[in-house]
Protein backbone atom coordinates (compact mmCIF):
# COMPACT_ATOMS: atom_id res chain seq x y z
CA UNK A 1 0.00 0.00 0.00
CA UNK A 2 2.72 2.47 0.95
CA UNK A 3 4.79 1.33 -2.02
CA UNK A 4 1.92 2.14 -4.41
CA UNK A 5 1.55 5.64 -2.94
CA UNK A 6 5.28 6.23 -3.27
CA UNK A 7 5.22 5.07 -6.91
CA UNK A 8 2.24 7.33 -7.64
CA UNK A 9 3.97 10.33 -6.06
CA UNK A 10 7.18 9.60 -7.93
CA UNK A 11 5.32 9.43 -11.25
CA UNK A 12 3.57 12.75 -10.49
CA UNK A 13 6.89 14.27 -9.49
CA UNK A 14 8.51 12.90 -12.65
CA UNK A 15 5.81 14.37 -14.94
CA UNK A 16 5.97 17.76 -13.18
CA UNK A 17 9.75 17.90 -13.46
CA UNK A 18 9.63 16.77 -17.10
CA UNK A 19 7.15 19.53 -17.98
CA UNK A 20 9.23 22.14 -16.19
CA UNK A 21 12.44 21.02 -17.91
CA UNK A 22 10.73 20.94 -21.32
CA UNK A 23 9.49 24.53 -20.87
CA UNK A 24 12.89 25.77 -19.76
CA UNK A 25 14.65 24.10 -22.67
CA UNK A 26 12.15 25.66 -25.09
CA UNK A 27 12.64 29.10 -23.60
CA UNK A 28 16.42 28.83 -23.50
CA UNK A 29 16.45 27.75 -27.16
CA UNK A 30 14.68 30.97 -28.13
CA UNK A 31 17.08 33.09 -26.09
CA UNK A 32 20.07 31.21 -27.50
CA UNK A 33 18.90 31.74 -31.09
CA UNK A 34 18.58 35.48 -30.52
CA UNK A 35 21.96 35.69 -28.85
CA UNK A 36 23.97 33.79 -31.44
CA UNK A 37 25.24 35.31 -34.65
CA UNK A 38 23.09 35.05 -37.76
CA UNK A 39 24.02 32.50 -40.34
CA UNK A 40 25.79 33.94 -43.44
CA UNK A 41 22.74 33.80 -45.72
CA UNK A 42 20.53 35.63 -43.22
CA UNK A 43 23.25 38.20 -42.62
CA UNK A 44 23.68 38.80 -46.37
CA UNK A 45 19.92 39.14 -46.82
CA UNK A 46 19.60 41.67 -43.98
CA UNK A 47 22.62 43.62 -45.24
CA UNK A 48 21.07 43.89 -48.72
CA UNK A 49 17.74 45.05 -47.30
CA UNK A 50 19.48 47.71 -45.21
CA UNK A 51 21.56 48.81 -48.21
CA UNK A 52 18.43 49.10 -50.39
CA UNK A 53 16.69 51.07 -47.64
CA UNK A 54 19.49 53.66 -47.48
CA UNK A 55 19.65 53.94 -51.29
CA UNK A 56 15.87 54.31 -51.47
CA UNK A 57 15.90 57.12 -48.93
CA UNK A 58 18.70 58.90 -50.83
CA UNK A 59 16.96 58.52 -54.20
CA UNK A 60 13.55 59.42 -52.83
CA UNK A 61 11.89 56.44 -54.51
CA UNK A 62 12.71 53.15 -56.21
CA UNK A 63 16.40 52.35 -56.63
CA UNK A 64 17.90 51.88 -60.11
CA UNK A 65 14.59 52.63 -61.83
CA UNK A 66 15.06 53.83 -65.37
CA UNK A 67 12.82 55.94 -67.59
CA UNK A 68 10.84 52.85 -68.63
CA UNK A 69 9.74 52.32 -65.04
CA UNK A 70 8.55 55.91 -64.71
CA UNK A 71 6.71 55.67 -68.04
CA UNK A 72 4.95 52.46 -66.96
CA UNK A 73 4.10 54.00 -63.59
CA UNK A 74 2.53 57.08 -65.20
CA UNK A 75 0.51 54.92 -67.62
CA UNK A 76 -0.75 52.74 -64.76
CA UNK A 77 -1.72 55.77 -62.70
CA UNK A 78 -3.57 57.30 -65.67
CA UNK A 79 -5.43 54.03 -66.26
CA UNK A 80 -6.43 53.83 -62.58
CA UNK A 81 -7.43 57.50 -62.61
CA UNK A 82 -9.79 56.86 -65.52
CA UNK A 83 -11.24 53.76 -63.87
CA UNK A 84 -11.73 55.07 -60.33
CA UNK A 85 -12.08 58.81 -60.72
CA UNK A 86 -10.21 61.79 -59.40
CA UNK A 87 -7.85 61.98 -56.47
CA UNK A 88 -4.20 61.41 -55.72
CA UNK A 89 -3.53 57.70 -56.22
CA UNK A 90 -0.03 57.84 -54.81
CA UNK A 91 -1.25 58.55 -51.26
CA UNK A 92 -3.17 56.31 -48.90
CA UNK A 93 -6.78 57.46 -48.56
CA UNK A 94 -7.97 59.03 -45.34
CA UNK A 95 -11.03 57.48 -43.78
CA UNK A 96 -13.32 59.28 -41.39
CA UNK A 97 -15.59 57.15 -39.28
CA UNK A 98 -18.25 58.86 -37.24
CA UNK A 99 -19.53 57.39 -34.03
CA UNK A 100 -23.08 56.12 -34.39
CA UNK A 101 -25.70 58.02 -32.43
CA UNK A 102 -27.70 55.76 -30.18
CA UNK A 103 -30.96 56.82 -28.61
CA UNK A 104 -32.41 55.28 -25.55
CA UNK A 105 -35.90 53.99 -26.01
CA UNK A 106 -38.32 54.24 -23.11
CA UNK A 107 -39.36 50.97 -21.57
UniProtKB/TrEMBL annotation:
GO biological process: proton motive force-driven ATP synthesis
UniProt cross-references to Pfam families, sorted A to Z: ATP-synt_F6 (PF05511)
Keyword Zinc: no
Keyword Transit peptide listed: no
GO CC field: mitochondrial inner membrane; proton-transporting ATP synthase complex
Coiled coil (residue ranges): none
Keywords: CF(0), Hydrogen ion transport, Ion transport, Membrane, Mitochondrion, Mitochondrion inner membrane, Transport
Protein name: ATP synthase-coupling factor 6, mitochondrial
Native source organism of the sequence: Taeniopygia guttata
